[in-house]
Structures are given as C-alpha cells and as structure tokens.
Amino acid sequence: MTVPAPARPAPAHGGRTVLLGTVSSDAHTWNLVYLQLLLEEAGHRVINLGACVPEELFVAECHRHHPDLVVVSSVNGHGCTDGKRLATALRADPALAAVPIVIGGKLGVDGQLTGMQVNELFAAGYTAVFDDGADRDRFLEYLGRLELVAAGGPG
Amino acid sequence: MSATVPRGPFAAAVAAARARGELVVQPRMGFGDPTAMRAGLTAVAQARAVTVGTVTLDSYTRVGDQAAAVRALADGAPLNGYPIVVHPVEATRWVLAGAQQHGVPVQVRHGSAQPEEIFAALLRTGVDATEGGPVSYCLPYSRVPLRDAVDSWARCCAAYTRLRDIGVEPHLESFGGCLLGQLCPPSLLVAVAVLEGMFFRQHGLRSVSLSYAQQTCPEQDEEALAALRRLTDELLPELDTHLVLYTYMGVYPRTTQGALRLLGAAARLAVRGGAARLIVKTPAEAHRIPTIEENVAALEHAARVAAAERPAATAVPDTGIYAEARTLIEAVLELSDDVGVGLRRAFARGHLDIPYCLHPDNAGQARGYITAGGRLAWARAGRMPVTVDRSANGRPAEMTSDGLLTALSHVANRYDSMPAAALRPTEPALSHAPLPEHLREVRPVSQ
Question: Looking at the domain assignment, is residue A76 inside a domain?
C-alpha cells in the first residue's frame, strides 16, 4: 500500500501553518508578538504580518503561504468594523472559502461586543470570535479542536 | 534654552508654567463628533489644573484611509478619535475654540508615519503643536518603509514651518521616548527622542519637546530623564525645548486604585525628573477609551500629586544610561550628516534595533527584559553598540509566551496588588463628583 506524500509536510507535533495579522487601521503589535510565541509553543509555524495589514495584502499572503488557519487580532476598537471588511475580502476569494479564520481582541470602542456585532462577524465569514475577556485557554482549546479535525480527515 | 527663540501658544504656555514651577498636565482624548470633541476640550480647559488640550485623531486618519473615516461618520459608526482631515475647517476651528477661548492651547496627536494630509489640516486650522517622528511613528506603529516615513516627515516639518507666515511658531514633540511602550531599555528611548529632535531641527523646527515614557523602575526613569535633559542641552542648545513624560504606556492596572497609584508615580517622576509636561492616563485605560469626566479627574489627580512633589535635590546613581544613549546617538550621526539618512542606515545595519518590533526595516535582534530588581535591561542587543552586562543582571531565559505576559503585566500587577498603605497621604482617592453643568456644553455644529 502506498501513501502519497502530503503536499506540504506538517511540522512536528502535527503543527500547522498559521497566518497571523491585524486589521488595516490597527497599529498595535504586542498582541501579535504574544500570539506568535503562543502558537509556536503549540508547535505551529507562524507567519506574522505585523501592524496595519491592508486587506489586499492579507489576501495575497494567504495565496503565498496557504495557511491552515488565519488569526486576526485587534485591540484598537475598530476590529469589529474593519474585521468584517477583512473577512468579506478573504471569503470573496474562492481559494479561501474553506480556511478557518478567527478573530479576537478588543473589537469594539465600548468594551464587550453586542450579540448582534458577534453575529455580524460570523456572518462576514469568521469561524470563531474571541471577544475581550476570552482567555488563552479558550483559544488553545479551539486550536486543539482544529487539530483534531485536521488530523481526523480522510487520507 | 535660548530666550531669543519665539514660541507659539502651546510652547509659551508650557514655558510659563515651568517658570512658575507648575507641571502642565494633558490628556489623550479624541472623539469623532465635533460637539463631543469641543466639550472635551472645554472640560480640560476648565479642569482644576494647569492643562493643555489634546485632539487625538482616529486610526483611519492615522493610516490615511479618509474614505473609511467618511464612511464611519456617515454610518454613525463610532470612531476612536477626531478625523481632522475630513471635518470642515470651520468645524475644527469651532472645536479648538472650546479650549482656546479659555486661553488653553491645543496639541493634535495622531500616530501617522506619513502625515502629509494631517499637517495640511493643521496648517489650514492654525494648530501650532503636534507630535510624532519619522522613526517613532513608523517602526513601532506602521508598515510604511522607513525611507518613506523619513521623506514624508522631512516634507511635513518643512511645511509646518510655514505657520510662521501667519506669525505662529510651530512646536513639534518627538514620540521617540515611547517606541513600543514596554520592554525597551531607557538608553534607546532617550537616543531616539534626541535624534528625532535633531531631525526636526534639520528640517526647520525651532521649538521642540522630547518625550520619555514611564517604565518599570522610578529610579531608572529619573536617571533617564536626567540623561535626556543633559543630551538635549548638549545637542539642541539653540532651540526652545522641554521634556514631556508619558504616564505608563503599557498594560495598565485594572483596579482604580492601582491605576491612580501609577498615575501618581508618573506625576512625581515628572516633577523630580524636570519634565515640564505630563500626559496622563485614566483608571478606564485597561478597559476602554476614557470619558471626558474620567480624563478631567485624572488631570486633577495628577496635578494634586505633582503640586506636593519637589524637583530632585540630588541625582540618582548613574548606571550608564547617559553614556549608552550618547553612544547610540553618535553611532547614527557618524553614518551621515543628514539625520534622516543616518537613522535609515543605522536601522538597516542594526546599530539601532527596537526590541520586539515586527517592522521589516527593524533588525529584530534586540530583546529587553525586566531584571529581578525591576529594572529594564538588555537580554540581547543585536548589533547595537551597547554592552549587555551579564554580571549585573544574570542571563535571562529565552522569552516564552507566559514570560512575555508576565513581563508585559509586571507594572499593572505590581500597582494593582500594592497594599492601601502604600498610597501616600498626598494622593487622595479620586473624587467621582459629576461634571459641573457649565462643562457639559452641547451645541450643534453648522456644517
């Protein structure tokens, strides 16, 4: 029996390629530095796009790196507004229809998002939303579930 | 500081307060709506403190996305600052008058790496004070190539001097003393602030302020302010200059008492270290954008604490911040007679390297950490001409996500967990009195 080699060998520990960035108006990066360390410690390969990522660049980097997961982190209060636009741009590309995209941070200017805002983020294309107050364990637990799905697939 | 240098309203107000021995306190404050912005400025002007007003711009304006700012205003979506480029000039003049009618000048704070449109708006509306810098608003907070930011800031500085055509001397503050706000040893903060001041002078400014952001250790911060004052006097002697201290720019305490203690520590540091101006933070900082009332309360709290403190009578021990900052500055000046070219080359070669900065034009080899004694030190200095002193601080462990969180929360945790007895008698608890009626000015804007 022959098993075809995977197109891109996964890193050790079943790690995946994660594209990490923020919305176009957000200049904060400590959240990105932290998430890179956290994801790398969980065995993933991280491409960190840094501050103020324009939507076109996010789409282009997705095409370049074929990430298994896209993580959007924003803390400037425009994350809800800009994040919807970003997800719409990413999902508009047929090649990115299925990639999991998650968003987290301080997403609104008035503290916690409303239920309607969270729904709008899901409707724009996010697979998961981690609003202010969501902790590391919930995020890691989500990553773990993602791993199970990825590892349990056919082939 | 030369007496012959003319000052605009902002610099004159700071100099007058300094001559009286009073600390100027200033908020970070920006609202998308002109009526709210004007009400904020009026409240700051009428606070029981020596204040200057602030108009903080929104982050769409910062990145030059005017279309998004227009869309947000049309949709009624909240903005995190005042979009000065898209509001009509008359509206902005009306906003500024909220402070100016009380004799209180206003500074525009923005955070833009390519601020041409913002400076054009400042010239249209006659705003005589703003801030930023070609390094401090490029590498930590944008993805604009450093070369483009340097060129843009050179053009903006030259354009800003045209305020003299209407008889107003412009004032520019370097944001270099902040960089990423955390985990950067003071010598680099001091060096970048001074280098940006020299860049401003090269491009025509005669009235500048140099910044330093409160870090993890009061003694180390006091030494850093002394080094900044000395280097300013040595390298920018012919300009009108003052120092501005930023209350802690990193992860902020979550409790009201912790936040007020940290603000109080900043106010005392400003007075002891000879800063003329302090930018405050509020107890709301860790949770959301503060209200007008919260800003006024923070200004008054800082002013009360500052009034009870005296400038340091004796210098804190010299641990080498001045010498290290001077070495970094000289390493840049050796690369070119043009400060902007020197800065570009220095970053390209890693002679300057901002710890944890993700920008592609930053070498990214340097790492700062907090020693067991609570001071900032270099864990790695990359190719910068500084010595990493292992004997003094021991070898730090490689940074992990947990370690980073601990370091970033070090100050917040310390101030949140401080026992109540640590509160000095000069720091009364914040009063929560409602804003007086005369401060709640509401008037529609004619557009």
Answer: yes
